[in-house]
Specification:
three-stranded antiparallel sheet; alpha+beta
Length: 194
Amino acid sequence: MDFSSAMAEHPRRAASFLRRFLRMREGAAAVEFALIAFPFFMLIVGVLELGMLFMASTTLDSATFTASRMIRTGQLQLNGNNTAAGFQAAVCADMSWLSSAQCSANVVVDVRTFADFASISTTPPVTNGALDPTKTEFDSGAGCSIVLVRVFYPYTLIAPLLEPGLPNLGPTQVLLTSSDTFRNEDFASTTPCS
């Protein structure tokens, strides 16, 4: 006999059963936990993911600023390390949370000089949803040059629920970007910068 036939045949018995069922408290904690466990754990994973994303972004900013100072003061140009690989190595030296192999494989640098601050363009080097290193260049300039330094790192997300709100490189990656714009110091001691 199923529940619906029992309800039709014995309305008092069914009403009594329903009252007893609603008063039962055994296992209520387990049921309540089962209802909130998935959203709770997804919230915890999301908070951890955003914390790691913030840490990666802050570390990238700090490493970019430190390495950019080497260009601004002429240290990179005068020490014979004036290449994209040399600058990338300077950035990776300050990103301790990445292995050196992972950093050199994933960090992309773009250093350009401009005639004035108004002509600076900041379009990211992305083609078809992927970071495109062929759209970057390396020109650290001479003394008094106006320089734009950009460092890119594709960060892979681990929390699937954050994907719709954050990604800009395919379905699971966020492009972390750090930039610094400045006028080089007169490290060649030619004429004062105007």
